[in-house]
Amino acid sequence: MSAGERPQREKPWVFRTYSGHSSAEASNALYRTNLAKGQTGLSVAFDLPTQTGYDSDHELARGEVGKVGVPIGHVEDMETLFRGIPLDRMNTSMTINATAAWLLALYVAAAERQGVPAKKLAGTTQNDIVKEYLSRGTYVFPPEPSIRLISDMIAFTVDAIPKWNPINICSYHLQEAGATPVQEIAYSFANAIAVLDAVKARSDLPGDALPRVFGRISFFLNAGIRFVEETCKARAMTELWDRLGRERYGVADEELRRFRYGVQVNSLGLTEAQPENNVIRIVLEALGVTLSKDARCRALQLPAWNEALGLPRPWDQQWSLRIQQILAYETDLLEYGDLFDGSPVIAAKVKELVDGAQAELAKVLAMGGAIAAVENAYMKQRLVESQTRRIAAIESGEQTVVGMNAYREAEPSPLVASGSGAVLKVDESAERAAIERLRAFRNKRNAAEAKAALLGLRDAAKSGANVMPASIRCAQAGATTGEWADALRAVFGEYRAPTGVVAREVRGSDPEAEKIRARVRGLGAKLGRPLKLLVGKPGLDGHSNGAEQIAVRARDLGMEVVYEGIRVTPAEIVQSARDEGVHVIGLSILSGSHGVLVLDVLGRLRDAGVRLPVVVGGIIPEDDAAQLRAAGVARVYTPKDFDLTRVLGEIVDVAEETCAA
Amino acid sequence: MNLADDQRSGERDDARELLAALESRVLFGGAPRLGLTGAPGAGKSTLMDALVRAHRARGETVGIVAVDPSSRRSGGALLGDRVRVRSAASDPGVFFRSLAARESLGGLADAARAAATIMAAVFDVVIVETVGVGQSEGDVVDLVDTLVFVAQPAAGDTVQFLKAGVLELPDVFAVNKADLGALAERTARELESALALGEKPDAKWSPVVVLVSARDGSGIDALEAAIARHRAHLAESGVLAAKRRRGRDAWLRESLARRYGSYGLAAFGGSAALSARLAAAPETSGFALERELASELERALRGERA
Q1: Same structural domain for residues B224 and B247?
Q2: Which domains does chain A have, with CATH numbers?
Q3: CA A312 to CA A578: how far, in whole Å?
Q4: Has A172 been annotated as catalytic?
Q5: In total, how many domains does chain B have?
Q6: At A562, which helix (H) or strand (E)?
Q7: pLDDT tens-digit map of B162-177
Q8: Nearest to A565 among B2, B83, B92 (CB)
Q9: Do residues B80 and B150 both lie within one domain?
Q10: Residue B2 and residue A552: Cβ atoms within 8 Å?
Q11: Is A21 a known active-site residue?
Q12: What is the ipTM of this complex?
């Protein structure tokens, strides 16, 4: 075929890989390698201290620095992160929420140091606080000031950084937290409405700004394995978004009503068992959000096949990038119009989703909107219930997961053969190095200037002035991430979201559960009171779905469960365990900082003279698990232990052993 | 604390002996006991957090008993109040114990009373928190000196509360979320007028309605002042001793009835005989009296059978 016969091809979506770890320097090297391999945009993963507004040397940051992303403490870190990457030609997505205004300010200041004016920057700050309360857990401030920060960023960027997407409304994490497609659409739209209504109510925006603001709101979706339904979900959202813009916000320009979204293909649905199958899952999930031209994603991030095992290596990420390149450049996907127009099957499914989502959205709006439905825990409880149902379906085999609850006979996988080092280990010295760099930076900056800028930020926060200009001055003056967040904590206060674990019991009875219930009762008689379990989430990791499901299930099996929510310190866990007189402690850590945090809890228990069995769940590579067991942990659970009833049965074993000892 | 919560018979006896000794020291003294009740979501825990912070700022230690409902089906319970009481998280001056209501064992009153008794001997203040509006209301009121009802503005719970006919129980009403403004004020006025019409069990105390906001901390001073006024009233009028005695008696009646049933009480001579026995021992601790009466009852029951 000669060049002249080649059909017109659509421009492909932006290829990204969610990445960042250890330090700005190491992450910069990784980004440059990825761009050289054909990646077309960047997606920055920040570590948990950066996401929750703590400097690397804060007590709560211990064990978390550089683990799930890159630590960015000040403008020099940001500058290092993008060294050799011209920011006027880059499209950068930042997964940052509570501290989004700060990281954008640092990005602007770093660009300035490259000689790039803010007007030329393009990219996205995730900046969706509602889903942090519901699922992801990296919130800092209460809902009201959080929405105000978001609204400030939107008002600032619409003219100062016109190519910026100041917020990426996430249905992604709702799906991870258990949402059905209808709940995903309804709750993410309720969230968008809360934000848009807040912006609409501002007095400092020109009258014509609202349609442009509407046009800058983008979404972040999850693509799950039910890929036909996922296609329909994207089409339903496209339809509803257009309608919302027209009807609620009077946006006349059709272009500004286009539903624009990026995707991270589902990571939590990937299995630890037979992990090579995950590549097939990723491909199918990518199809769900690319097949339909009218509802195609604008940017796509694929996870690596081994994410359920630990942190992916550069080779693993390269493999996922190649999937995108083959799909976009080798296949004929981009040569056609929409493949589904006129399909009655798709149209019916889309209508079903649209109708269901509108009904659920009306319910949330009737109770006062997304913020009210966070504070009264309505959405969180519905999500915990959906998740409970989903897990029950996997446990019962009603929902097939190949390699996990079906077709488990398998040859040993050469990909995870022992000694292959199938995951990346973050250098444990990264934390110390980060602290040293931070302290050196603090010493050399002009302290008076930084202090004055922080006072300016405080005043802006108090007076209601837009915090963005003040934040950019803080970035230029050398303030640190912890200082920026502390200044706002002092004005706004801190928040703890409802846990949603009061959710109704949604499971029917099954014989396994009955057996365990009887054992729990029997053990209670021996112990003199019901078996009491402490579920603790030490560290900054906010992914509480697992801990919540364990807490709810333990309750359903007759245990008394003390659950304290996220972000508790090892010292707090030990004090709770002692005050509450629990029989077993369960710790959940997904951020990879299990080594430091679990050993800390064990050490403090010993110091306090409390002898209690500890079990741990999380994304824990086998080598680490062995170390934890050697240190005295009674059991270690990883994502392959999907059967919660069985896990809790073993926790009863542990309690029985301790009782007998 | 674990021993006091132990239902095995041997351990129970040991615990009772200890508790009797402790209670005899704090029956009419010890730490003041404050009850917080109200519907779920009214903001009890957040308000408690604010109160605990205020006590700690003055250097006073605090013991907390938080009661959550148990699942009727499984008997299990989710004890989630610690989430909201961050002041308790790592402060050795605060002791926080969650208890499940355990309907099936009927042991809440016992366990909560035991925990509160121990805490009253050790800490400067004891706070008991329960989900209000229900059967357990009677239990809390028997356990504490001052009962605060936390109401949320214009929520159904206030009306329910009025309907339930327990308006006379709380000494102080805290209308939370005063940051909501007019709504909260209206609720406070409604409560005040309802209280004016209602019966007053304590002729010398008129229940106080306070507007508070656990969110922005406003009104906490006023709430503390109202609680302090009620305490002063109890101390001055000599009502405290009578109130604690009444609480002791109510708990004993319920506890004995639960263990021995109406048949057992009849063997003892019925309710009137029990009242006479209680009246004859005004200074004896509840746990000591329980041991005494229980063994008498058992003797009486054995005697009848023989």
Answers
A1: no
A2: 89-108+121-416 (3.20.20.240), 437-492 (no CATH), 511-660 (3.40.50.280)
A3: 38
A4: yes
A5: 2
A6: strand A560-563
A7: 555 567 788 999 998 7
A8: B83
A9: yes
A10: no
A11: no
A12: 0.85
